[in-house]
Amino acid sequence: MTAWLGPAEWQAVALSLRVSLTATALSLPLGIWIAWLLARRRFPGKQVLNGLVHLPLILPPVVTGYLLLLTFGTQGPVGGPLRDWFGVTLAFRWTGAALAAAIMAFPLMVRAIRLSFEAVDPRLEEAAATLGASRLRVFATVTLPLIAPGIVAGAVLAFAKAMGEFGATITFVANIPGRTQTLPSAIYGFLQVPGGEGPALRLVLVSVAVAMTALLVSEVLAARASRRVAGS
Amino acid sequence: MTAWLGPAEWQAVALSLRVSLTATALSLPLGIWIAWLLARRRFPGKQVLNGLVHLPLILPPVVTGYLLLLTFGTQGPVGGPLRDWFGVTLAFRWTGAALAAAIMAFPLMVRAIRLSFEAVDPRLEEAAATLGASRLRVFATVTLPLIAPGIVAGAVLAFAKAMGEFGATITFVANIPGRTQTLPSAIYGFLQVPGGEGPALRLVLVSVAVAMTALLVSEVLAARASRRVAGS
Amino acid sequence: QDGPTIFAAASLKTALDEIGAEWSAQTGRDVAISYGGSSALARQILQGAPADVFISANVEWMDAVEGSIEGDSRRDLLGNRLVLIAPAGGDAAPVNLVPGVDLAGLLGDEGRMAMAQVDAVPAGLYGRAALDWLGAWDAVAPRVAHADNVRGALAFVALGEAPLGIVYATDAVAEPRVTVLGTFPAESHAPIVYPAGALSDDAQALDFLDYLSGDAAASVFGANGFTVLPRE
Amino acid sequence: MTLEVRLSQRWPGFALDAAFTAPDGVTALFGRSGSGKTTIVNAVAGLLRPQAGRIVLGGDVLLDTRAGRFVPPSARRIGYVFQDGRLFPHMDVAANLLYGRRPRRRDAAFSDVVDLLGIGALLARRPAALSGGEKSRVALGRALLSNPRLLLMDEPLAALDEARKAEILPYLERIRDTARIPILYVSHSVAEIARLATTLVTIEAGRVTGAGPVAAMLADPGAVRFLGVREAGAVLAGRIVAHHPDGLSEVAVSGGSLHLPRIALGVGHGVRLRIAAQDVILSRAAPVGLSALNILPGIVTAIRRGDGPGAMVQLACGGDLLLARITGRSADAMDLREGQPCHAIMKSVAVHPDDVGG
Amino acid sequence: MTLEVRLSQRWPGFALDAAFTAPDGVTALFGRSGSGKTTIVNAVAGLLRPQAGRIVLGGDVLLDTRAGRFVPPSARRIGYVFQDGRLFPHMDVAANLLYGRRPRRRDAAFSDVVDLLGIGALLARRPAALSGGEKSRVALGRALLSNPRLLLMDEPLAALDEARKAEILPYLERIRDTARIPILYVSHSVAEIARLATTLVTIEAGRVTGAGPVAAMLADPGAVRFLGVREAGAVLAGRIVAHHPDGLSEVAVSGGSLHLPRIALGVGHGVRLRIAAQDVILSRAAPVGLSALNILPGIVTAIRRGDGPGAMVQLACGGDLLLARITGRSADAMDLREGQPCHAIMKSVAVHPDDVGG
Ligand SMILES: Nc1ncnc2c1ncn2[C@@H]1O[C@H](COP(=O)(O)OP(=O)(O)OP(=O)(O)O)[C@@H](O)[C@H]1O
Ligand SMILES: Nc1ncnc2c1ncn2[C@@H]1O[C@H](COP(=O)(O)OP(=O)(O)OP(=O)(O)O)[C@@H](O)[C@H]1O
Ligand code: MOO
Ligand SMILES: [Mg+2]
Ligand SMILES: [Mg+2]
């Protein structure tokens, strides 16, 4: 297996995993919060927020990547201050790849979680409130466990999307081996040259294997979560 | 406004709408069926089906497009018979673009609908069965209305994704102005030349406007559907 | 990462990977090569990408980053030729690409001419110029299937979806599923030039750039079908 | 149409092994919370596929686990009023009511049921905007309107006030008697059961502990065990012989005649009366000058002393059996013994107006 | 701690305008299905924010729409037993029970409640695997264990069998009397109300039609109107004076003494007795030779003829008021008039064992 993929390719696999996991894990709390806002609250600008969340889905990935580059690049209005004040650079770093993947996957994550929020019976939350539970406790002990299947679904969608994300990532952080070259970027590279199909196919298979494993794990987790609710 | 976009660009807008609407509308029944299979049935190969559905999310779009070309091209194992027996050609046609968009959007659609299926209280379906309703009638009169918010969410996700899909589409059906040139292909073209950012931005704005409108409509529809359930 | 970072047009991958490995072996330094479309790479450079060397697939994008080029390090590194291809194993005869040639006729009633996007991507721009020169553009224009880049055009022909295509000689060389019907006269389009330049005064970067212009590199480029341009 | 049920179902901590036959009329399932009533009803409806069992309705085998036969719920034509309502949240009340109706029209039967249940004003509302009792009324109406050949009712009246119950019970009686649909009826209320049921099946911890005609089951001095002291009582069959101008109806029973508040049935009609054991006072001598109008002479047929201070006395009054619950002290003071003649005193109003069954 | 409630809420087709004060003890809300009971209870819990109103609990203003004050449900410390259960489906029974408890330990109170409700075997189950009655018991336990300063109970016992009710009622009495938590209790059962409640509030179509101490409300001959004929009856206060060896306890009431089945309280304890109007027989002469042990002399204080054949007679027996429902025919035959002496005959067992309240 080690012989089957070259070291650069293993790097790409490792980086893709790191990027996808980071993107999923870090965006999950925000995703839950935004999903909650959209599902449960009324506030001015709600539809704007909703639109913003969906934007990466609507825009061609290259455009999203370019916007990210303009915004979070070291010359950008956010990237500049980030670097100068906090010493954080995103552009051309794996962290930037994670940001791109997170943003591209965000609409999928939010939608799944939001749907689950909407399916929670508010009467159960009311019951928890009458038992003295603060909003936070109600959320943590009633709402959150009940939306667990949605969170799993949202996370796995985001992870899969992050594993496959290419256009925005390569546009934002380029395709630097060992630093920003994810599996899809590596696959792209191979597909750009004669005879690259073989290596590309190998990487595709690795990518599919990783994502399918994540998918299977998620199915088991989701089944467990909903079995808990369904009884016995 | 008409002066603001050239005729070729208007064509791209119209084509993108046609492709996205067709992709969404035609894949919806299949999406509902697959979501139902995954949410409600146990069968051998279920996880394989689940994986297949997610594949377009995981693979770089170019790879998906290439696989589509291999399969549904006129020389492909599906495309050939389609052409010879039914006279249906997908390659280089807007119908092919719709197919590509549908496949790319399919995982999003299926996930949203599946989550909604899982949230339906099976005791209501049981109640309908005791009232003599056939499985089909239970599905049409109880299950389907109850998952309406999920269907709307799935459809709007799919539509948004279809509006933004680029990599698979251009790889499968190329970019033939007036026939297969969708908004993202046009945007991509502009971005390839120095100074093309301006025209690209115009098209991006059009694309965003269209998708946001769809989003707003969907919010209204979903709110209506869930208000029906919540009473009064 | 203690070596230079190279931003290079994706079509150079096979050759550059080999040359980079040789250079690393000689110097004991790593080299990271980020492959992408020339447009994306140039934009990234304009946004402060940490690239030490840029190798563009066309002159325009090199011109766009002119301000970032270190001193007089810019040079025209490679040349390429444009060829007319057809699926291998067909009955297509070699075509004499002289003005007045009826390429549209060769496409038959339905066939498409596969090209990289003619108003955007370098290979497309060259191809369009060549067809213009041949006086064939007006007849062929409505029949062109624009791919997002030259590799997409190659795939359309390789898979038999398009009877004819215009790609770089370097692409056709290694693709057994296509045959070259003819090479466009060099004077039919602007010279196909891959300019290279240093983006920093890093000694290793300059060293690598010089290595690219050396004999060892030349033989690798040559083996991949590129014309090595003499250093003025 | 007879319903035969034999079921086994095991869950961790609970085992059901029940067999009974429900003849025409209303069969009441009576048992404590968690004894397995809903489980049985679910199996009859086809919502639970028990581990073993056989269910036959009017010769039609609905379930036979041995033979691998299982008729799906939708093909059973069994109306089910669920313990937990289960209204369709996305349909208004009218659509809920019509869901099982064929043709789906607001016909006369629809209007009847709507009027009876007092839900005419709710037709355009969705279930979320209904009160608890309103929900159960709609659920009841929905099942009634589905033309079932068997009705399952799992505590259908538990959320209803007495007045509403008093309105609905006669309607259920009408269904029982005119539509001739057998009804399997789960209830904790002996009053409801005594009034409606023809057959009583008692369940304890997943097992059938008794089954038989209601009158005999309730007149059994041992019935106290499962009914509770307050609920024991006899059920008598009678016939209306006169309606008196002061608002009382005279009903002939085998042992004499009783005066009850006006019964809305013609002279000559048969009625069922329930007389709770605790509402009967015994007297050796024929009593005089009491406000109680109903006095039946009888013979003591059984005396059962309980653990407490009470005693259950069974009297034969004509061909019927009466139960009287008195104190042991009184039994001693009156020197009651089997075979002894005795008078049963019942206030006319002690024969509960809504225990007057058609 | 007193609860003052004033509310207005309008929905299409329904208007609630209710005001009442619930003193210490149990206040029963009694009214027909759809009259607005759950709406009131929801507003007290803070789950409904009514269009107008003011709710004050022990001086603490929970709601004042005029002043824009609204205390959220979680800060009200009000335990609510919902009409529809609302158990947390993802938690087992034990976790449900402990949800509102602080500290969240299985302490003595936990064991007490679990034993009382008979749910010890269910602790590890999830709600989906419970029967209807089991669910309501767990819901009851969950509210009881949350240390509330006010308990709201919306038909908490509707799904329970008589035997289970008989076990739970004394416990609720203990809460009422020892924990001194006021309880707002919705029920359709007059027996439950008579036993538990100190105050009765009757609701009709969104309006309070009567409010006052239970004894007075139930002894009002006009109470028939809202209680139904079967449910009218008086509530008497008494004191245990002796436990006799034959299993009877002697209770002194103001007008004499009564013999009841053994009451599990010491001599000297006060008890509340409910005597349903229909369980009382009247006699002009002092009766002899009857199995009924309880005979109280009294004076007729009111006679109210109903529309039907019945008449409601109110007697003063000592300082207490009794109600007797007899037929008009008997009233005529006995020539009953106000001020006339008369004997009330009650079977000892007619004083319902579970109407014996502490
Ligand atoms: N959200 C709502 N919209 C419209 N009407 C409503 C809504 N909620 C309740 N109602 C109506 O208000 C009235 C009072 O309802 P409520 O639930 O308080 O009744 P209830 O006295 O508790 O009855 P029950 O004994 O049947 O539970 C009912 O007629 C009900 O239909
Ligand atoms: N899915 C299940 N898993 C485990 N135990 C179950 C399940 N469903 C029901 N039970 C248990 O089976 C027993 C019988 O339940 P059932 O619902 O039939 O009772 P019931 O007689 O209807 O009681 P109630 O009067 O309280 O509604 C109960 O002890 C219940 O806890
Ligand atoms: O290397 Mo290119 O920019 O695809 O012609
Ligand atoms: Mg049950
Ligand atoms: Mg209510």
Any overview of this molecule?
Chain A is mainly alpha-helical and 232 residues long. Chain A has a single domain (7-231), classed as MetI-like fold (Orthogonal Bundle), CATH 1.10.3720.10. Chain A contains eleven helices and no strands. Chain A has helices spanning 7-40, 46-58, 61-72, 79-86, 94-119, 122-130, 135-146, 148-164, 167-173, 183-191, 197-230. The longest helix of chain A has 34 residues, at 7-40. The mean pLDDT of chain A is 88. By secondary structure, chain C is an alpha/beta fold. In chain C, strands 2-1-3-10-4-11 form a six-stranded mixed β-sheet. Chain C has a five-stranded mixed β-sheet with strand order 7-6-8-5-9. In chain C, helix 1 (13-27) packs antiparallel against helix 10 (215-223). The model of chain C has no long low-confidence stretch (mean pLDDT 90). Chain D is α+β, with helices and mostly antiparallel strands and 358 residues long. Chain D folds into two domains: 3-225, Rossmann fold, CATH 3.40.50; 233-357, RNA polymerase II/Efflux pump adaptor protein, barrel-sandwich hybrid domain (OB fold (Dihydrolipoamide Acetyltransferase, E2P)), CATH 2.40.50. In chain D, the strands form four sheets. Chain D has a six-stranded mixed β-sheet. In chain D, a hairpin with a 2-residue loop joins strand 4 and strand 5 (60-64). Chains in contact: A-B, A-C, A-E, B-C, B-D, D-E. Bound molecules: adenosine-5'-triphosphate (2 copies), molybdate ion and magnesium ion (MG) (2 copies). The site of molybdate ion has 11 residues of chain C, from helix 5. One adenosine-5'-triphosphate sits between chains D (11, 14, 31, 33-39, 83) and E (129-134). Chains D, E: One of its GO terms (cellular component) is membrane. Chains D, E: Residues 289-355 form the Mop domain. Chains D, E: Keywords: ATP-binding, Cell inner membrane, Cell membrane, Membrane, Molybdenum, Nucleotide-binding, Translocase, Transport.
